[in-house]
Amino acid sequence: MILEVDLNPLEALAVLGAGAAAGAINAVVGSGTLITFPVLLAFGYPPVVANISNTVGLVPGSLSGAYTYRRELAGYGRLLLTLAVASAAGAITGALLLLWLPSGAFDAIVPALIGLALILVVAQPWLARRLAGIPPGEKHRPVGPLLLLGVFAAGTYGGYFGAAQGVLMVGLFGVLLSTDLQWLNGIKNLLTGLVNAVAAVLFVIVGSVAWLPALLIAAGSVVGGFAGGHWGRKLPPAVLRGVIVVVGLAAIINLLV
Q1: Which of 19, 32, 153, 185 is deepest in the core (most CB within 10 A)?
Q2: Rounded to whole angstroms, what are the CA distances from 192 to 6, 82, 184, 185?
Q3: Taking the CA of residue 1 as centre, how many other CA atoms within 13 Å lie in the half-sphere pointing to its CB?
Q4: Any idea what the Cα angle at residue 154 is, between residues 153 and 160, rounded to 5°?
C-alpha cells in the first residue's frame, strides 16, 4: 500500500488550505472530511490511506474547535465523561472495521444515515416537544440507553469514515438530550475530536498514516477550528440548523455522485 506521494509546493499548499477549511466546517457543523478526503484522492493517495491520514490530521482542529466552547461545557464533566466513553468505544470499533472490512462495506448506508440525521435536525423542535420534558433547573434530559447506543453508533461511523459525523451527533442530541443547539454543538466538537483521536492512535500503531498530508491538514485545521468555533458560537439556532441541513445535503450528494 502506498503511504507517501510526492507533493509539489502548490499541492502541499492546497492540502494545507483544505485542512483549514475542514477545521472551520467541523467546528460549525461537521463534514470537513468531504473537503480534505477528495483532495488527498486527487493527489494520488489510495482511499484507505487518504481516509486514515485525514482522520489523524483533523484531530488538532477538532480539539481546537471544542476549546472555543469551553465556557458552554463548563460544569458538565460527568455528562461529558459518560458520552465520551460511549464515543471512544464506538471509535475503536469503527477504526477496526476500516482496517478489516472491504472499503465499500458502508457505502450504501452512509447517505441514509446522514439523511436520517438531517430529518432529526429539522424535526428536532417538534420531537423535543413530544418527548418527556427537561427536568426543572436542568439543561438536558437524563442520559438513557437509547442515547448511549446512538453515541456509540455515531462513534463507530466516525472511526470508520467520519464525514457528517457531527451532523449525526447534533441530530441525535437535539432529540434525546437537549434543545440548546449551541451547547450541543460544543459537545459535538468535543466528541468528534475524541473519536478522531482514538481512531488516530490505532492508525498510527498499525503504521498506515501518510505523515506529510496528515501534518499539513493538522496545521490548517487548528487555525480553521479556532475560527469556525468562534464564528459558530454567534449563529442563532435557526441559522445554525439551516447550515447543518445545507452541509448535510451536500455530504449526501457528494457521496452518491
Answers
A1: 32
A2: 30, 14, 12, 10
A3: 14
A4: 90
Phi, psi of 5 (to 5 degrees): -125, 140
Question: Does residue 4 sit within a domain?
Answer: no
Q: How many domains does the chain have?
A: 1
Domain range for residue 209?
A: 9-256
62 located within any domain: yes
Per-residue tens of pLDDT for the chain, all 257 residues = 556 678 888 999 999 999 998 888 888 776 778 788 888 888 888 878 888 898 899 888 888 888 888 888 888 999 999 999 999 999 999 989 888 877 666 566 667 766 776 676 676 666 656 555 677 677 888 888 999 999 999 999 888 877 678 878 888 888 888 878 888 888 988 999 899 899 989 988 887 789 999 999 999 999 998 888 877 777 776 776 677 677 667 767 766 76
192 assigned to some structural domain? yes
DSSP letter, residue 179:
S
Q: Is 63 left (phi over 0), alpha (psi -120 to 50) or beta?
A: alpha
Question: In the block, which residue shows the cell 429539522?
Answer: 122
On whether residue 3 sits in a domain, the answer given is no
Q: Which amino acid is at 142?
A: P
